[in-house]
Amino acid sequence: MFDLDNWQEIWITITRNKWRSVLTGFGIFWGILMLVLLLGLGNGFRDGIHRTLEGITPNTCLFMAGRTGEPYHGYRKGRFWEMNSHDLARIRQKARTVDQIAPVLYGAYTDKNVVRGMKSGTYNISGVLPAQFVVYPQVVMYGRLINDMDVQYRRKVCVISPSVYETLFDPGENPLGAYIRVKGIYFQVVGVARRVIGGDDVEDESFYIPFTTMRYTFSRGDKIHQLFCTGKAGVDAAMVEEEVKNILREAHDIAPNDDKAVLSYNVQEMFQMFQSLILGVNLLIWIVGLGALLSGIVGISNIMLVTVRERTREIGVRRALGAKPMTILKQLMSESIVLTFMSGMLGFVLGVFVLEGIARNMGEGNELFAPPSISFNMGLLALFILIVSGVAAGILPTLRALKIKAIDAIREE
Amino acid sequence: MPIIRIHDLNKTYYGASPLHVLKGIHLTVERGEFISIMGASGSGKSTLLNILGILDNYDTGAYFLDDLLINNLSETRAAELRNRKIGFVFQSFNLISFKNAMENVALPLYYQGVSRKRRNALALEYLDKMGLKDHADHLPNELSGGQKQRVAIARALIARPQIILADEPTGALDSKTSAEMMALLREINRTDGITMLIVTHEPAVAAATDRIIHIRDGVIGTDQRNTHPVISL
Q1: Distance, CA of B228 to CA of B211 (rounded, Å)
Q2: How far apart are CA A177 and CA A189, in angstroms?
Q3: What's the gap in Å between the CA of B79 and the closest CA on chain A?
Q4: How far is Cα B193 from Cα A8, in angstroms, rounded to an integer?
Q5: Could you count the other beta carbons within 10 Å of the beta carbon of residue A101?
Q6: For residue range B154-212, what is the model confidence (pLDDT) as tens digits?
Q7: CB distance from A119 to chain B under 8 Å?
Q8: A226-231 and A60-65 strand pairing
Q9: A17-48 pLDDT, tens digit each
Q10: Helix (H) or strand (E) holding A369
Q11: Which domain does B218 fall in, by range?
């Protein structure tokens, strides 16, 4: 059934009116091109978000002290309160959902607070426990991270980020063992590390020292500025959040129904938000892309209807000479599919080239966008969509053609 | 055994006002006859031709083609029968404009599933018979009217049909070419023994046939033998 003649017939019909075929095919070409470009960019967006979220334990919660929202135990509403180091012990003791507890105590933030020889910089100094690096995984570039011994002996050591290293050290210089002065006190560099999150994160200007060192050496008192808690495996972030909040409320004379006192932030919510954002973007892409494709299909269908009308006599003659309805059906369907497929493939290939071009020129991308890409499966899907489109576009013209009777050819106008 | 037997054929077109076109046609055609069908426009001769060519259905009566009852056939079966048993020659030739002469002639065999090589070889043979071998690769618009009609006749003959239905075959030709065409049809009738039915309104064309049937108001008016057929157009 697929001998050379069939293809010749199809080819002749398509090329008989070249411009019409080109313009018709353009609809499908454009539709697929748009779909591929949008999907590629959508993938870039998704990958970008995933890359940003990668390396955060999904059920991590962040807690900070705010002002109370309800009067309680004789305290007025709007009271300031602070988390303190006893809270760590309480949470460790009571909370059953919590896995890692990572308090952060910030140093006083003053201009040029970090100095090494002639070089200096302004950084937010964080006093942390080793658990901090579970919450925010790090890529160690030199040396090591802060460990339990550092915390226990209140060692004056620090772990700095690459951007801090670049400011305070000459390129290629070994930072390990070097001393950095922080507000008059010297700290020894034991490691350079960057967060896993977000690739080359220029925002990452972290300067870590042991939690206890910060507390005692800089006389920061008993308080904690921020508290990260990760849940045990399989525990919902919302449960961790609620449990820790309740413990904090109880310990600090805060009403159990006070939602304002403990400020909390739950990464899972952010995850979910991004997930639905990605879903929404994808949905939009498919609607727009398939819409463009649909208008292409309508275009092809329309032109083919005109073609069938023009070919009434020819089809009638074929019928008189013995063409069966099935033969006519095959012929027209093949025409539709070939036209759709060719222009669609052209659009697809061009789309992939454009995406590749964008990806090449984009490098690593930024927080929200990774280089766009399109998967092999997506290619197969596009192929499938094209064939379905071809069939869909051919249905109406074919039905019209099947209604043509041999008599119509003989009837003299 | 007659090739065509028609018994009390009736056909009505149901439009805004029903039109009773064929009102009981009785007709028997023997194999190898050379017949012309005449009639004024609206007499029903085209309808009769359509029914004979299995292009249209009839309401009541019976039509046997080669002893086969033709009645309410499926489109597929009708196409098959048309392809094998009937050759069509049209007034306006109805060649497919984007196919050359050889491909046009070969078309019926294409629908039989004959291989490209064989049907093209056969098409060349038939074109040769029509004296058009040199024009095999010409497109229809590069041929004269007479040449086109000869290509059409070759196309009608290639599937070795039992009857040829010609609808005003000389209608678009000048008198000299018309005369040649009638001579050609006569020769095919004589040498191959193919039954010819020619619909015409030209008395001169009818005069060239062996039997002249007049259709008048949906019935057969006269049916006369022409013992001295002459081609003088």
Answers
A1: 10
A2: 5
A3: 4
A4: 36
A5: 21
A6: 999 999 999 999 988 888 889 899 999 999 999 999 999 999 999 998 899 999 999 99
A7: no
A8: antiparallel
A9: 788 888 888 888 988 898 888 888 888 888 88
A10: none
A11: 31-57+72-225
Backbone angles phi, psi at B22, to 5 degrees: -110, 125
Using CA atoms, how far residue B196 sits from A380, B35, B92, B190, in Å, is 57, 6, 18, 10
Structure tokens at B192: 């191959």
Q: Which of A231, A262, A222 is nearest to A99 (CA)?
A: A231
Q: How many whole angstroms separate alpha carbon A280 and alpha carbon A45?
A: 12
**Residue A108 near chain B (CB below 8 Å):** no
A12 chain-B contacts, CB cut-off 8 A: 98
Looking at chain A, which residue has its C-alpha nearest residue B80? A322
Interface mutation target, options A410, A411, A412, A413, chain B, most CBs of B under 10 Å? A410
Domain count, chain A: 2
A324/B111 touch (CB, cutoff 8 Å), yes or no: yes
Distance from CA of A406 to the nearest CA of B (A): 6
Interchain proximity B167–A410, CB inside 8 Å: yes
Same domain, A346 and A403: yes
pLDDT of A198 higher than 70: no
Identify the helix (H) or strand (E) that includes residue A263. strand A262-266
Contact A101, A229 (CB under 8 A): yes
Average pLDDT, rounded, for chain A: 86
Interface residue B50 vs chain A (CB under 8 A): yes
Q: φ and ψ at B158, to 5 degrees?
A: -65, -30
Residue A227 · residue A62 · CB < 8 Å: yes
Residue B145 lies in a domain: yes
Task: Give the whole-angstrom CA distance, residue A160 versus residue A329.
Answer: 73
The shortest C-alpha distance from A15 to chain B (Å) reads 11
Instruction: Provide the number of structural domains found in chain B.
Output: 1
Element spanning A277, H or E: helix A267-310
Question: CATH number of the domain that B211 lies in?
Answer: 3.40.50.300
Q: Based on the domain organization, do A326 and A177 belong to the same domain?
A: no
pTM of the model: 0.67
- How many angstroms separate the CA atoms of A192 and A64, rounded? 28
Chain B interface includes A409 (CB < 8 A): yes
Residue A410 touches partner B, C-beta closer than 8 Å = yes
Nearest-by-Cβ selection for A12 from B75, B80, B98: B98
- pLDDT, tens only, A43-87: 888 888 777 776 667 788 999 999 999 899 899 999 999 999 899
Q: Does the beta-carbon distance from B111 to A320 stay under 8 Å?
A: no
Residue A25: give the domain boundaries: 4-54+272-411
* Nearest one of A55, A38, A51 to A370, comparing CA atoms: A51
Among residues A265, A280, A313, the one where a domain terminates is: A265
Q: Which chain A residues are closer than 8 Å to B96 by Cβ?
A: 314, 317-318
Task: Give the closest of A5, A12, A326 to B76, CB-based.
Answer: A326
Work out the minimum CA distance from B227 to partner chain A, whole angstroms: 31
| Angle formed by the axes of helices A4-16 and A325-362, nearest 10° | 70
ipTM > 0.95 for the complex: no
